[in-house]
Amino acid sequence: MIGPYKKLLFLFIFLVAAASFAYATECGNGNCESGENACVCPADCGTCGGSVPNTKCREYQCVEGLLTQICQAVTLENCCGNDICEEATGESFGDCPGDCLPKNIEFEIFGPNFDEKFFRGEPVLFKVKITGDSKKLLSAKTFVRGQFGEVKLFNDGKHDDGNSTDAIYANTFFIEKTAEEGDYTVSLDTDFRGVLKAEDFNLLIEPKLDVELDVKEKFLLGKNVEVGGQVKKKGYTFAIPINIKLSDGRVNVFDFDTESDSKGMFYAEYRSSLIDRAGTWLVSVQGSDSNGNEVFAEKEIQLVEPGKIEFLIVELLTGSGGEFKSGSDVPIIVAVKDEFGETIENAGVSVVDRRGQELSLLELTPGEYSGAYRVPFDLALGKHVLTVRATDGDGAGIFGSTEFEFIVTGTEILLDIIEPSKKVYAVGDALNPSVFLSYSGGDRVPNASVKVLLNNKEISLTEFKTSVFSSDYVLQEDDIGRLKILFNATDRAGNTGSAETFVEVSGTSLWQVLQDNLVTVAAVIVVLAIAGMAAATLLPKKAERGSLLKRRRQLKALNRQIQNDYFKKAKISEKEYAKLSKNYESELEEIEKKLEGMQEKK
After folding, report:
1. Spatial CB neighbours of 249, under 8 Å, sequence gap ≥ 6
2. Which residues contact 342 (CB under 8 A, 6 or more apart)?
3. Helices (DSSP H) in 458-573: which residue ranges?
4. Other beta carbons within 10 Å of 89
């Protein structure tokens, strides 16, 4: 009984000592002394309150201690981040994922498609978006489990999963080469802070590869039966051993082992003979890869005796009956097929016009042939017909044709006026109208009909050089005034063009004055002639001939120079070249006549 009393005695002594000590301290003396704190003496120790640094939902508050109030860090209620999911106040995973857990976990599967079939060795990308109460879950532990084992899915941006903030988890696994054909169950399991979700899916294993056969449906006996194709599946191609068989319906006439290349392509051909059986044949292709995936395909074809197919069908793929200008291109595209509708490759296809000009068409895609027919400038305006002919590429003598209609419309002839080159002339001057003809594309216009109207007088021009037309004309009294000069040109096809210019004609030229005073001038000429004859006997004929020869050499040099400037250096225009060439050649003709006359007098 003494023990309990001792404890009470010690407690009493302690309380008396504490009271004495408390009585000894003085709150408000500016010193936070022993026994004082922010709760019992804020004047000396400061206030108790404020958030706890580097924490959330914790602050300092005065709480009851053993003997008195003390300042202590406490956790706040109704605060997101206090590690308490206070559902009564409406807190949830959606607005406070740090305190609360999701009530539901959702899967959104991006791959694979579970209605597709998978072959052995195929990589399967499993990809899923995981949310909790529709909010992204970024740190879920997720696995795919099945016959192939256990595969962890990652949300790190390194496993074809997008990025680390999209809550998409992914990883790749492979269908084992030992996997049997059939359905397999795959389980998707996730764990987010103890909240679990699992869902099962089915994967269908079908160890078969696709074969895309490239074989025509009909062949002529005696020709090559070509068998090609590609082994592929879901964008993958396969290099594997392949066996190709041809059966005529009774026996195998062809058995060939080959391999597809890295792109899955394979090819074989059988040279049929006239003794082979005509009718329905069967093409079969089979094989398997190193994973045990099977390859199989077959197709019926027809072997036809020569002469049974008698024609080809040439089908126009470009519209007929269009309008085209002279010198333009007429595009023509055709498809060539046999009477069974089978595409004919490597055919000989050409376009022939009514003149016999022929244009070969090129095969740009299998069985389709194209080209462009250039409309000749001298082709008459109006409707025209082209014949499109086709012959088979095997030389079996099979052919076909069709007609292509088009309409030629006019194209303008451009007239470049060479003469007149001056604006003012006098009566008696030589005008010599000249033009150069071309089409808009720059092609020359030969053999045209060119006329010039000088007011009401019509003069026909002759072709001096290719596409250069001119005529001689001396201005008359009735030309005085403003003279309109109108050129009109028409080519053989009926294309036309025109150009006009104006000159001023006034006064009388020296030549005209001489003509008007012919008697007087003649008398003067007689006198001058007699004097000239006397003087001529004194002049050496050799000097005259030398002068003419020198001038001839100069003119030939000038002619070569303008040819070089026009054809090689393009320093002068075609109009200037035609004008200078005409002048030089006219003077050369005069010199040649004089030299011939001097030779005859000898």
Report:
1. 277, 279, 280, 281, 282
2. 216, 217, 218
3. 510-516, 518-536, 541-563
4. 9
Side chain identity at residue 588, one-letter code: L
Vertex 483: Cα angle to 478 and 489 (nearest 5):
115
Contact 147, 179 (CB under 8 A): yes
Give me the phi and psi of 579, to 5 degrees please.
-65, -50
- pLDDT tens for each residue of 486-502: 999 999 889 999 999 99
Q: Which residues pair with 258 in a beta bridge?
A: 242
For tokens 């244009």, name the residue.
359
Task: Measure the CA–CA gap between 137 and 128, rounded to whole angstroms.
Answer: 12
Q: 539: helix, coil or strand?
A: coil
Query: For the segment 464-522, what is each residue's pLDDT rounded down to a tens digit?
Result: 888 999 999 999 988 899 999 999 999 988 999 999 999 999 876 555 555 555 555 55
- Show the tokens assigned to 70: 């003390």
Is the CB of residue 287 less than 8 Å from the CB of residue 241? yes
Q: How many CA atoms lie within 13 A of 602 on its CB side?
A: 9
Cβ pair 271, 258 in contact under 8 A: no
> What percentage of residues in the chain have a pLDDT greater than 90?
54
How far is the CA of 563 from the CAs of 217, 341, 572, in angstroms?
64, 59, 9
Report residue 51 as tokens. 């958030």
List 483's β-bridge partners, or say none: 503
Whether the CB-CB separation of 282 and 247 falls below 8 Å is answered with yes
Residue 352: exposure state from Cβ atoms within 10 A (0-12, 13-18, ≥19):
middle
Question: What's the start-to-end Cα distance of the chain, in Å?
Answer: 183
Query: Which tokens belong to 354?
Result: 């009514």
Q: What pLDDT, on a 0 to 100 scale, did the predictor assign at position 572?
A: 80
In angstroms, rounded to a whole number, what is the distance separating the alpha carbons of residues 235 and 263? 11
Beta strands in 114-237 (DSSP E): 117-118, 123-132, 135-136, 141-146, 149-153, 168-174, 182-192, 195-205, 208-214, 218-220, 224-233, 236-237
User: In the predicted model, what is the mean pLDDT of the chain?
Assistant: 86
Answer for the pair 120, 176: CB distance below 8 angstroms, yes or no.
yes
3-state secondary structure of 75: strand
Measured CA to CA, the distance from residue 135 to residue 332 in angstroms comes to 62
pLDDT at 19: 47
- Tell which residue, 178, 136, 163, 169, has the closest CA to residue 151: 169
Cβ partners under 8 Å of residue 53, min gap 6 = none
